[in-house]
Design a protein that fits this description.
Elements: H1 2-8, E1 11-12, E2 15-16, H2 17-21, H3 26-50, E3 54-60, E4 67-73, H4 80-105
Antiparallel strand pairs: 1-2, 3-4
């Protein structure tokens, strides 16, 4: 947290860092929105893991004293997971765009 307080005391081309980096800026809003998606992703992934979608099975091999372990996938990944990941990445990219736009304006 010390680096944020040091950064907030810097003046950037007439705009103080608190204004540029403040919690009310568009880029922070995008980061908070990405955080909401990450929370939803955690819930969906926890529900998926609770279904125990994978199993590990030992199988004999042709080589003596050697065992192969197979990971069996029993339940498909919910289609919503890649969609949520896309939303997270889109919001983070947008946050970066907004931050750069703010820096250019400053």
């Amino acid at each position: 947290m010390g680096s944020w307080s040091a950064l907030s005391s810097v003046i950037l081309c007439g705009m103080d860092a608190v204004t540029l980096l403040g919690w009310e800026t568009p880029w922070w809003a995008k980061i908070r929105h990405a955080g909401e998606h990450i929370g939803r992703l955690q819930v969906v992934c926890d529900e998926y893991r609770a279904l125990r979608p994978f199993s590990v099975e030992a199988e004999a091999t042709e080589t003596t004293h050697e065992v192969a372990y197979r990971l069996r996938h029993k339940i498909d990944l919910p289609k919503v997971i890649p969609l949520i990941v896309d939303d997270v990445l889109d919001n983070l990219r947008s946050a970066l765009d907004n931050l750069i736009h703010g820096l250019v304006q400053a």
